[in-house]
Amino acid sequence: MIKLLEQSAYERSEIKAKLNSTFVELGGLEKLLKGHKKVLLKPNFVMPEEPDGCSTTHPDFYMSLAEVLLEAGYEVGIGESPAFGTCKKSLKFHKVYDECLERGIKVVEFNKNQSYEGVEGDKSYSSLTIAKELNDWPAVINVPKLKVHQQFMFTAAAKNLYGCVTGSRKFYRHNLCANDPIRFGKMIIKNAYKVDCVLHISDGINAMHVKGPRGGDPYPLGKIIVADNFFAHDWLFCHLIGLDPLTTPLFKAVSSSDLGVAKEECESILNDDSFKVAENFKQSYYTDISFSPWHLVRSGWRSLKFKLKRA
């Protein structure tokens, strides 16, 4: 299941109406959430930043989704492990932390770890960990920001779930692949499968191009993707921005069966006469998957600065 929605502005009432009608069209929230009553939203908070820079999921986007769920009687949380800072600090930068408390939305910091079986045949990734806090939430909705990525070419549904890896382990795993993007891609896929989201609903109203996952330029893509399969979601996004998915680390690492699902799910949308590739959308320049020693030192210092500040 995959839907491509048009939405040009961060207007909560419009986003809510669009999501509500889409959920009804797809059989209702009870069906989509598989009967679960507790729902965790996983946005992209790469670090605490103002939303207009387009490196993070926009607050009016994820709060619109939260409102839809609350009004339907669901218990809602927002959880993340940013590369720097905390989920709480990110919500404060977005000026919605107090609103979350008032509405009873739980703020979930991913701090604890649980182990699971990793990538078969890869000693570096044979055992992986993911946030233990996910166990408290039977339904997870992935709410990524659509943007380019200088190490992974693009970040959307699959890569956003890497934020379910706690703290500095994210940096460490970049280097475990010995700068092999396909090995890294296989780990990203294993991680996304483990999170097992019920839905992926992406903020592509304003995407990011030129550079990413931070420091790029906003691009008015005007799209929301709703999907229950992260491969299909990401396949569609690549085509939207004129990026050949088969050149990316994610789809170079994918199995033939999962690739077939992605193609089949997106076929009708991509073949529709109304489908258009974004004009003048600029891909990022590319750098190594693994971090240089200087980058690790700089990242460690940045992490320390965030820890020293009050959340």
- Please name the fourth-level CATH homologous superfamily: LarA, N-terminal domain
How can the largest sheet be summarized? 10 strands, mixed
For this structure, what is the CATH class?
Alpha Beta
Tell me, what's the shape?
A: globular
Tell me the span between the first and last alpha carbons.
Answer: 39 Å
Query: What is the count of helical runs?
Result: 12
Structural category: alpha/beta
Question: What is the number of independent domains?
Answer: 1
Topology as H/E string?
EHHEHEHHEEEEEEHHHEEEHHHH
Which percent band covers the strand fraction? 15-25%
Low confidence ranges: none
Tell me the CATH architecture.
3-Layer(aba) Sandwich
Mean pLDDT: 93
The CATH topology turns out to be Rossmann fold
Radius of gyration from CA coordinates: 18 Å
Summarize the amount of helix as a percent range: 25-40%
DSSP, total strands:
12
How would you describe this protein?
By secondary structure, the chain is of the alpha/beta class. Helix content is 38%, strand content 20%. It has a single domain (2-308), classed as 3-Layer(aba) Sandwich (Rossmann fold). The strands form two sheets. Strands 1, 2, 3, 4, 7, 8, 9, 10, 11 and 12 form a ten-stranded mixed β-sheet that branches. A two-stranded antiparallel ribbon has the order 5-6. It is globular and about 45 Å long. The termini are far apart.
